[in-house]
Structure formats: C-alpha cells, structure tokens
Write a structure and sequence with these properties.
This protein is mainly α. It is built from eight helices and four strands; from the N terminus they run H-H-H-E-E-H-H-H-E-E-H-H. The chain has helices at 2-22, 26-54, 60-72, 86-93, 100-111, 115-122, 138-178, 180-186, and strands at 73-74, 81-82, 123-126, 131-134. Strand 3 (123-126) and strand 4 form a beta hairpin. The two termini are 23 Å apart.
Length: 194
Amino acid sequence: MLREAVFWRLHDLMTQSYALHQHRQGLGASILLRSGFESLATPIYLNQIMQQVLDGKLSFHAFGKKTSVLLLGSRDGSTEHQSINIMTILQKCDKPYPGIEKLYAIMSESAHPNYEGMVAGYSKIYHDDYETHFSNRWMELYGDRHLGSMELCMSTFHHEYNDVWPTLMEKLESWIEANDAELESTKNDPLTAA
C-alpha cells in the first residue's frame, strides 16, 4: 500500500511540477519538486528499515509500527499516529544518497517567506544606483536546474521502487516464513515493539 501510494503521489507531483516549469512558473514548480523529494524519501526509508529487520537491527514488530506511521501518520491529529518529521527521514536518506538533504534544504529556501523566498525571488538590488527592481525571478535563478533535479528525483525513485524494494521484499517474505513461530509468540510482547 505504502509503495504504491508513493508512486501515485510522486507521479502527480512530477507531472504538475513539469507543467508549471513549461509555463515558466518557477516557484510553484520548485515547491512541487520539493514535495517530490519528500515523497521519494519515504521508499528510501522504508527500504532501509526493511534491511534493518533482515540484519537483526530492528524487530519485525517495530518495523510494523514504523510502516503504520509512514502510511497513517498525521500532524493535525486526524489519525491516531503522529507522523515522522520529514527532516528525520531525509537525514537517513542522505547516507545512501549524499547530497539529498542539502538539495532539499536549497529547495526549501524558496518555499518559505525568508530572504530567498521573498527578496531574492522577487527583487534585484542595484547598490550603486540605490535602486531595487521587482520582478518574478524564479526561472532566471533556477529554471535551468529544475529539469535535472526532476530527473534525479525520478531516477532515484525508479531505482528504489524497481531495483531495491522487490529484492528486499522477497527476502523479507522469506525471513517472515522462516521466523513465523517466533513472530507469532512475540506479537504482544512490548519489548519486541521497541
């Protein structure tokens, strides 16, 4: 469920980001791409915690709780699970994909009403003339990098979705079969859920 929901979400975000980029709407395109990287982080993290179960570093029951939070978490209390902070997940994703956290931070600057999101994105200061010219500068500043970042997001997702996940899932299914009796006997044990 989680894997397929991420696929649909990422496809939707990338389609809309590309459409905005084609219409020279750089800020919206960038914000949607930023959301795409957040979505990409989910299967990377899911694959990492599956590997932790296989390596004996995470109990299967704790894995179940983490996947429930990934799928059903919310910040507004609309579900019973508190979602994981996306920065926590992105930090974990930066290990196999160095630079993903930094790229996300760069894209986040445009999403917030701070220096880049306000001043740099909409004005150009000419100090010598004591003038400020206002315009929408998003395509001028970042338009040439957008498609490359989209490609990075989609190719990384493709790898995690088509190469990493199927192999891990097959191993996890075998692991579950081999450990079925122990899993059944410990399903209500509070120590295995940690």
